[in-house]
Amino acid sequence: MKMGVGQIIEIVYLDKAGKISQRKIKIKDIRDGMIRATCLTTDAPRVFRIHNILAWQPAKNQRAG
């Protein structure tokens, strides 16, 4: 399965400080090794490096929020 714009996914992410977090995000754009998304936990825009996503799956509940 492939990630796509508009899709809501759950990710396990390693940030630049080495901290691992789990988030539910809605993908806005995928380009140049980056995913621009809205974090549904904080309702804030975020940018994630694809190579720092340790795991992902489609969200069980595809509705935002």
Please tell me about this protein's structure.
This protein has a single domain (8-58), classed as Roll (SH3 type barrels), CATH 2.30.30. 0% of the residues lie in helices and 57% in strands. It is built from no helices and 5 strands. The protein has strands spanning 8-14, 20-31, 34-39, 44-49, 53-58. The chain has a 5-stranded antiparallel beta sheet with strand order 4-3-2-1-5, with no helix packed on it. The protein is globular and about 30 Å long.
Rg to the nearest angstrom?
11 Å
The neighbouring-strand order within the major sheet is 4-3-2-1-5
Strand content range = over 45%
Sheet having the most strands: 5 strands, antiparallel
Distance between the termini: 23 Å
Number of helices: 0
Give the ordered list of helices and strands: EEEEE
Q: Report mean pLDDT, rounded to a whole number.
A: 92
The CATH topology name reads SH3 type barrels
Given the helix and strand composition, which structural class is it? Answer: mainly beta
Overall CATH class: Mainly Beta
Count of beta strands: 5
Low-confidence stretches: none
Shape: globular
Tally of discrete structural domains: 1
CATH architecture: Roll
Measured as a percent range, the helix fraction is under 10%
List the helices and strands and how they pair.
Elements: E1 8-14, E2 20-31, E3 34-39, E4 44-49, E5 53-58
Antiparallel strand pairs: 1-2, 1-5, 2-3, 3-4
